[in-house]
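Look at a sample.

——
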Amino acid sequence: MEIRSTTDEDLDVFVDTLHAAFGRFPETPTAEGGGVWWSALEMDRNLLALAADGRPVGTAGAYSFELTLPGPVLVPASGVTAVGVLPTHRRRGVLSAMMRRQLTELRGRGEVLSVLLASEALIYRRFGYGPATCTQRLTVPRHRAALTPPRARGTAGVSAAASDTGTVELLRRAECGEILEEVYDRYRRAQPGALSRPHRWWARGAGQPPVSAAPRHVAVHRGADGTPDGYASYSIGEPETLTVDETIAADDAVFTSLARFVLGHDLVTQIVFKHFPPGHPLRWQLADFRAGQVSGDTDWLWVRLLDVPGALTARGWFTDGELVLDVDDPFLGEYGRYLLTVRDGRADCVPTDRDPDLSLDVSDLGSVYLGGTTPSTLVRAGHIRAHRPGAAALADALFRAERDPHCLHWF
């Protein structure tokens, strides 16, 4: 078997092989070559696995993104995608060989971590990836969608949820592409776990709505100065359901205004927020607390550390302390013991021979890295071993983020 990098000339073969691996057929691109998800592929970052006779049997790709870490801090991150093996060549080591080659190349680029969306939860942990963010669906019946007036008052006598002085304008997707791109980019720079959406994605309509040019109504929120600072992309389908693709907001007040707009829509029986952040306060704002029904709670972004010291020193920190971490990376056959020292929001991470406080797999380190999963949860699950009392609690305090991580981008 041979694994080689691809070029632009390999695009059709790459796409056909990937679709065959999943038993599907490619869609038809627009006349401009856009409108399909693979129009944003970076062919200089993809791999083809070839059988002995030269036939393509597997694919693996990677996008160039920025990931927002706690801090917030922006770092380059490879978005692993388009991974597939033909049914005729599964369980022959093709996938493992491609993943090992890919991780080696990503390290060679100097990147400290990679991310992916897992088609199956059982596949990618063995390659060192851990689930780091979650998402869910929130469904609200229209007749129970009233929001309660805010009760708490701030220091100025006005609650954050009631302080919005902006306006909501209704546009069509075709009218506001630049607005969506600009608002999302400002949002993702402050939201831990968020990925960038490069301009080529928007320009080529490569992705799911509202990145794609599929017809959508868009509620655009503008601040008091007229600057767009939020949007909700939605469509109405049968049976009389308004589905929100995503809600992007600069703050809670903007989110509340956009939620109030879609929850008050006429001639629908229910409103579905398709990509709802766990722990979001909207459920508490409903006058009928039981009206919001959560479903589809699932993992979303998986994180893989390629350089443990580099990744740990890249993010921001909010508590001072020291931890000695034993980190095992069985897929790459590596092991390291590191002293993590945090002072004044910055970390130092160096090899050490001190006794460990925690022992963990690199995939579990990926799960806690963005602050969405506490180390003590994985200690209780039997994934992480704490070697002394108080080590898990200290790790919880150290790895927390300023806000829950959430990722909306599909790739």
Remarks:
- The longest strand covers residues 56-69.
- The CA atoms of residues 224 and 354 lie 56 Å apart.
